Amino acid sequence: MTLEGAQLRTRLAGDRELAVRLRAFHGTVRVTLGETVFDLVIDDGAVTPTDVDPSAVDPAVGLTIPAELWDLMAVPHPQVGFECLTSAQVFGATIEADWPTVVAPYLGAWNRIVRLGVETAVGRTERTVEADPFADSDDPVGRYVRYSVDDLEYRVYYEQAGRGPVPVLFMHTAGADGRQYRHVLADPELQERYTLVAIDLPYHGKSLPPVGSRWWEQDLTFDKTLLMRWVTGFITATGLDRPIFVGCSVGGQLASDLCAHHPDSIRGAVGVNGLYHMDSWAGFDNDRFRDPRVAAGAVGSTMFDVTGADAPEDFRREVEWIYTSNHRDAYPADNDYFMFGHDLRVDGHLIDTARTPLTILTGEHDISMLTPDDNGSALAANIPGAEFIVMPGLSHFTPSDDPEGFRPYLTSALDRMTAAIEAAGPDRSAP
Q1: Is residue 130 in a domain?
Q2: Nearest to 319, CA basis, from 267, 249, 415, 215
Q3: In terms of residue numbers, what domain contains 409?
Q4: pLDDT for 350-368, tens place per residue?
């Protein structure tokens, strides 16, 4: 779709968010959105709205969306992978500048320019909400529990709500924490049927690194064995009676791995955007987030960009806040497992869904939908009895950015799983 450059420049010059995100930046950005090409002169966040002679400047940043790609992005309802600059880089969108010193510190700005370009071209507006959907029942209780794994004692924070007979344990995404489930814990219907628990894994959220870990002397890295021990240790320490495990993203991977290796600890699992294996993403450069020049804000900006395009803006912004408020090293440490430590071709045969049922819920706009050979559909095709459900219109962070859209899928999955376990009788859970 054709974009009027002068109109977009005027909008960019008046955008208050962009001014904040570009604070302390001085230079010229060459923006190419399809056939529309223009330069932005930026001085400490102030964007010059007038056109400049491209031959007279040497741009510090080149932001390019090729014409064929722009035509797929600049539509009211783009297909998966074309919703934002972050995902569009898989298909040829580029940010030409030094990653740690120019791209990462201002990543939210570069993403914002493209987002405003699409909004200007198609007239898209952000969805808003006036209040939290379950504010009247938002009454979780937070506490700590101590337990040891591999000779380190962890002080782990969690929140609990509800009074139902079946416990459900929620695990957050990579580099985040249990605040992502605040809407789920406040859902009055779920509170009636389940006891809801959201954990901050060690090193995440309010769960500080354990004393004696000397985490500041090393690159943090978390593998599958350690993550599973953190979860099973928590279940034992809190006395939860074989909860249903629900995890998103890195937690979605762990859902199936727990079914394979610790079926005695859980009744079943729901993996949100969990995959079968990660071969399609083997080239992901996880170490770039370990560069000390890259702050947590770069992770937060990236995650905000891939939140649901139709999710309420306030809740999408919460995702960015949660990521930015966690330690920068937590995200790549979790990703060591998410990207490189999960492969059900190796141990998926250990999953017995007759004993430990497994459901994968994947957002229609989750980036994994681009790789059917290794996403949740491949998991269901290769693990007998595993269930794969696509959630139309939803994306990667659906438990937190679109809680009302996520609600029916989660409720249905939990209710089906509980009914199947009860129908199977008491012998089902026997080791």
Answers
A1: no
A2: 249
A3: 135-429
A4: 999 999 999 999 999 999 9
